[in-house]
């Protein structure tokens, strides 16, 4: 597992060093019955690390009692793939996923974000994913991606490639 995170961080560092814009990270999870749930590394619902740690510690399989946060009451539910935080009063980005990286640091994934994928693109990324990183895929002329198999789903690094000089 540590090798996956090191490889992902290296890919992100290389991607952002050669990128003209900020790299974006996604997490794709297969859903029962088919289809994908796509999580975004950044989104409109932002909770402090202290709030995330509290919700993570209070999570129960059936869901915690409502816990006050700056975004309204939140419930935390522990699942096989991480802790799901439900923000019932948020206008958008009502669901967050909390995961721990190889160093134990909490990572928050958002249900709403700025990197849309088509079903075909998500399928290509899932099918090409490898533990150490699959091949680079061209999503469109402005975005490239690389996908990695992790314990909680397919992690995807998306970046804008550097334009070649004439």
Task: Describe the model.
The protein is an alpha+beta fold and 166 residues long. It has one domain (2-159). Helices cover 22% and strands 33% of the residues. It has helices at 2-17, 49-58, 119-128, and strands spanning 24-30, 36-40, 74-79, 82-87, 95-100, 106-110, 137-140, 143-150, 153-159. A five-stranded antiparallel β-sheet has the order 2-1-9-8-7, with helices on both faces. Strands 3-4-5-6 form a four-stranded antiparallel β-sheet, with helices on one face. The longest helix is centred in the first third of the chain and has 16 residues, at 2-17. It starts with a helix and ends in a 7-residue tail after the last strand.
Keywords summarizing the entry:
166 residues, alpha+beta, 5-stranded antiparallel beta sheet, 4-stranded antiparallel beta sheet, 3 helices, 22% helix, 33% strand
Describe, in short, the structure shown.
By secondary structure, the chain is an alpha+beta fold. The chain is 22% helix and 33% strand.
Task: Outline the fold blueprint.
Blueprint: H1 2-17, E1 24-30, E2 36-40, H2 49-58, E3 74-79, E4 82-87, E5 95-100, E6 106-110, H3 119-128, E7 137-140, E8 143-150, E9 153-159
Antiparallel strand pairs: 1-2, 1-9, 3-4, 4-5, 5-6, 7-8, 8-9
Helix/strand class = alpha+beta
**Over all CA atoms, what is the radius of gyration?**
17 Å
Low-confidence stretches: 1-22
Distance between the termini: 41 Å
Number of domains: 1
**Which percent range fits the helix content?**
10-25%
Beta-strand residue percentage: 25-35%
Strand order of the largest sheet: 2-1-9-8-7
Topology order in helix (H) and strand (E) letters: HEEHEEEEHEEE
Major β-sheet, in short? 5 strands, antiparallel
**In DSSP terms, counting alpha (H) and pi (I) runs of 4 or more, how many helices?**
3
Q: What is the residue-averaged pLDDT?
A: 85
Number of strand elements: 9
What is the overall silhouette?
elongated
